[in-house]
């Protein structure tokens, strides 16, 4: 009797609202990007989830960290790739742009922050977004999962 045809058990995740998915090189973990629709006028959320064959290992709210925008899930730019060590993932996301303010808005200079300072005078500047079908400003992200 040969056991070569036995498969690893499937991952116990809900297959609803999946945008991207990638199985780790060992086959023991799976990373998925899930979109959770917003309620009553709130913006949609995006989660990066890491699953083992038996349970959810980690769930990260992508937009809560404010490091970057949404993860690109389209067929041109979207990717989700594991490192060989399975300690990090590579994906493409929208670049977080500095806040634009009017020339007439006052800034609070007393508070020290690690955020970039707002750009004065660009509040009403037109930014072409290619009808939301493609992303203008993207950044490659490689977060460590350990």
TrEMBL record:
Record protein name field = Acylamino-acid-releasing enzyme N-terminal domain-containing protein
Q: Which family does it belong to?
A: Belongs to the peptidase S9C family.
Q: Which UniProt keywords apply?
A: Hydrolase
The record, for InterPro entries, names: AARE_N
Q: Which organism is it from?
A: Desmophyllum pertusum
Hydrolase among the record's keywords?
yes
Q: What Gene Ontology molecular function terms does this protein carry? A: serine-type endopeptidase activity
Pfam families, alphabetically? Answer: APEH_N (PF19283)
Q: Where is the Acylamino-acid-releasing enzyme N-terminal domain?
A: 10-107
């Amino acid at each position: 009797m040969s056991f070569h045809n036995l498969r690893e058990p499937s991952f116990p995740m809900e297959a609803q609202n999946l945008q991207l998915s990638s199985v780790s090189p060992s086959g023991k973990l799976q990373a998925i990007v899930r979109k959770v629709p917003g309620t009553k006028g709130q913006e949609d959320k995006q989660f990066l989830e890491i699953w083992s064959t038996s349970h959810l290992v980690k769930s990260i709210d992508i937009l809560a960290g404010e490091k970057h925008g949404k993860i690109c899930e389209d067929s041109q730019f979207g990717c989700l790739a594991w490192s060989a060590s399975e300690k990090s993932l590579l994906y493409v996301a929208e670049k977080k742009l500095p806040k634009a303010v009017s020339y007439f808005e006052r800034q609070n200079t007393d508070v020290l922050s690690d955020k970039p300072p707002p750009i004065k005078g660009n509040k009403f500047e037109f930014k072409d977004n290619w009808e939301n079908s493609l992303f203008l400003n993207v950044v490659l992200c490689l977060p460590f999962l350990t």
